[in-house]
Amino acid sequence: MGRHRTDEFDGGYRAQEPSPAPRRRAARGGRGRVLVPLAGAVALAVLLGVAAFVIFNREHDCSGGKLPLRVVATPDIQPALNKIAGTYNKALHSIDSRCVEVTVAKEAASRTANTLAAGKANADLWVADSSLAVSNLRSDPATAVPEPSGSVATSPVVLVTAKSSAAKLAGSLQPSWSGLIAAANVANPDGPGKKVRVLALDPQKNSAGMAALLAAAGSAKEAGQDKALVGALKELSGQLVSDPTALLASLTVKSGSKVPVGVASEQSVHVHNSKKPDAQVVPLYPAEGTLSLDYPLVVVTKDAAAQKAAADFKRELTTESAVRVLQGQGFRGPDGKGGDTLSKSKGFNPTPPEALPAPDVKTVASMTQTWSRLNLGSRMLTLLDVSGTMALPVPSTNMTRMQAIAKIATEGLGLFAADSEIGIWAFSTHLDGQGKDWREMVSVGPLTETIDGTLRKDMLIKELATVQAKATGDTGLNDTLKAAYTEMTKSYQQDKINTLLILTDGAGNDDPQGGLGNEQMLEFLKKTYNPKRPVSILIIAFGPDAPKGKTQMDALAKATGGEAYIAKDVLQVRDFFLQGMERRLCAPKCDG
C-alpha cells in the first residue's frame, strides 16, 4: 500500500519516516505552538493532581491503622446512628494518621447507667435516650460521669391510643396530663377511669415512662391534684409495661369495654405504625405541653485519641445527610423540627408541642425515690373500734357508726395491691375473756392467701360486712394499741411499709377497769418506735365525738411518724387513705 500524505495537516510531518532534523518554519503557525501551552497545562494538571492526592491522603491517612470508636446507644436511636456511622466510616476520617472506625451497639439507658455507676465503661461515647437518665446517674457523687455535650435528636413524650378508638376516647378524655391523672386515680372510681384504662411504661426501665411521671407530677402540682396523683401512681404501678413496643401493641388489642391509653415517645409511634399498618395508633399531644427525650451525647472515654474521634463523629451527626437519616426514622432535631415522617396526614403534628420546664436533678431523684417507695409492698394491721358508741346512728344517713366505719374500711381495702398483707383486730373491752380488750378477726397475711378455703381478702370483706358493736363495751384503745404495736414491731418486714391503722369514732381511750393511761401509752410508743424499722400509726375517726379526742389521736400518730384524720362524711375516706399513702413517700421524716 502507498503512504498517505499528511503534510497538509501536520506541516510536513511523516508518521512512519521521522525526519532526522525538524524543519523550522517561522512564517507558518502549526502544532509546535499548540504543544508548548498544552505541555504546560498537562504539567499543571499533574502538579494539581499530586497536590490533591497529597491533601486527600493527609486527611484520610490510615497509615497508623484504625482508631476504634465504640458508641453505645439506646435501641430506639441505634439503627439511625448505625446507618450514619456506616457512611462516616466509608469516608475515611483520619485522626493522627489513624482512620476512625465507628461501631454502634444498642443497650437500654438504665443498663448502661448501671455499668457506668460500677466503673465499668463499655463505650467511648454514650447516647442515652434522655438527659433524665444522665442526671440521675450524675446525682451520685461517687459516679464520675461528664455532663452531656449536646443533643443529637428529640422526640416528645405523648399520650397514645389505637386509631380505631380515638373517636370513642374523645368523649371520655381530653389529651392532657391532668386528664390522665383523673383517669388513673384509683380513689376516683366514678371519674373517667370508668371508661378509660391507663397503661404506663416502667419508669425504672424506660426514660419515656419517667418523663411522663415527671410531666404528670408537675401538672398535678400546678393544678392542686397532689392526692389524685398519689392515687394515679398507685394504680399505674399495677399497670406497667416494660417497653414501648409491648405497650403500643397492647393498645390495639380489644380487652373489655374500657379504651386503653398509654404513654410513649412520638418516634416509637412512627416505628410502630411503619411496622404494623393494620394496627395503627395515634399520638395525643398533652394540652399542658410535655417533656421530650433529647438523646444527649456523653463522652465517657478518657483516651485522648478516642475523645478526638468522638468529637469528629459528633460533628458528622450535625450534617444534613445525618439529619435526614434521623428524621427519616421519626426523630425531630434538637430544635424540634421534624421531617416528612411526622406529617399531619400520618396523624402527627408537624409543629412541636410546647415544652414543659426541664426538671432539675433534685426533682428527678425525688420522683425516683417516690416511685420506689410507693411500690414497696404493704403490711397493715387494722384496729376496728366495736365499742358501744359505735352502735349509734349517723345523722342524715341510714347507717350506724359501726356500719359507716366498716364501709370506710372496705373502701380502703380496694386501694391496696393484691400482694398486700392485711389483717383486722376488733377492740372494745373484754372482747376475748376478762381483761383482754381485743380479738383477732383476720390474721395479717397476703390478700391472695387462702384461709380454710376462703381468700383472705374475701374473709376481710365478709367480717367487715357482719361486724357488730358491743352494746356494753367501752373503748380499750391503749391496751389494744400496745399489743398490736408490739406484734407489728416484732414481725416487721423490711421490704414493706408497715402500718397500724385505727378506725374509731374518736372517743379515745375509755377503760374504767384500768389499763394503760394516755401518758404511759405515749411513753411506750416513743421508746419502741425505731425510725430504721418504722411502724407508723394512722388514725381515721368518724362521728360527732371525734373532735374531742383529736389532741390525743395526733399525739399517738405523730409519735410514730403517722397522722390522724377526722372524716366529716364517709366519702372523705378516699382522700384520707390517699393521704395515708402520701405519708409512705416521706416516712420516717414526713415532718422535717
From TrEMBL:
It comes from the Bacteria. Residues 379-581 form the VWFA domain. Residues 1-29, 328-359 are annotated as: Disordered. The keyword Metal-binding does not apply. Pfam families: SBP_bac_11. The keyword Transmembrane applies. InterPro entries: VWF_A, vWFA_dom_sf. The chain crosses the membrane at residues 34-56. Keywords: Membrane, Transmembrane, Transmembrane helix. This is VWFA domain-containing protein.
